[in-house]
Amino acid sequence: MTLTFEVDPTIDPALRDGVLALWADVTNAGGAVGFVPPVTPDEIRPALLQHLVAMHEGGTRLLVGRDAAGAIAATAFFTFNSHPLMQHWVWLYTVMVDPRHQGRGYGRDLMAAVEHTARTAEGFEHIEAIRLGCRGGTGVDGFYAKCGYKEVGRVPDAIRVAPGDDRDDILMLLPLT
Question: Is the dihedral of CA 45, 60, 73, 97 positive or negative?
């Protein structure tokens, strides 16, 4: 089974609820996507609404991966820079794969779809690189490195997961040129 990827899917209640459920499942499985478990979809809703507003305003794009049943199994949000000196690269946020599908290569498939989108999708013609931040201590930086991203910065102890549990904020870059 493979995932089917779509850029800029129609935003409807099914998509919204699917992304919320995925985000909660990823967080509760230990994924570093902006929250600390345990978390409910209702607690995540304000963060998703910020993404959706940014999409409506044209500053953010969504890549969704669906499994064979059509359920949302992966996401990545691209955010364009409004600063005129930084418009040649995009941020990548909320990169997630459903924990039930992990270990099947879907993370690599998602990152390949991210790169393909940044290289070929309408509106990305001027993009020369993808930047993303990740939480240290999770091993995800090693995964991104295997996908071609290079660590270009690190802020020690910048992310406080819990009292006494501070993690590095790692900046990764994938040049497209």
Answer: negative
Nearest to residue 160, comparing CAs of 23, 35, 28?
A: 35
Q: Could you tell me if 23 and 52 are in contact, meaning their C-beta atoms sit under 8 angstroms apart? A: no
Amino acid at 5: F
Extract the runs of DSSP E, i.e. beta strands, from 34-149: 60-66, 72-80, 89-97, 129-135
CA dist 37 and 172 (Å) reads 24
Answer yes or no: is pLDDT of 1 > 80: no
Rounded-to-10 torsion of CA 147, 70, 54, 97:
-30
Q: What is the reported pLDDT for 19?
A: 98
Residue type, 106: Y
Residue 129 is classified by DSSP as: E
Q: Using a pLDDT cut of 90, give the percent of the chain over it.
A: 98
| DSSP secondary structure of 75-91 | EEEEEE--STTSTTEEE
List, for residues 93-144, the tens digit of each pLDDT value.
999 999 999 899 999 999 999 999 999 999 999 999 999 999 999 999 999 9
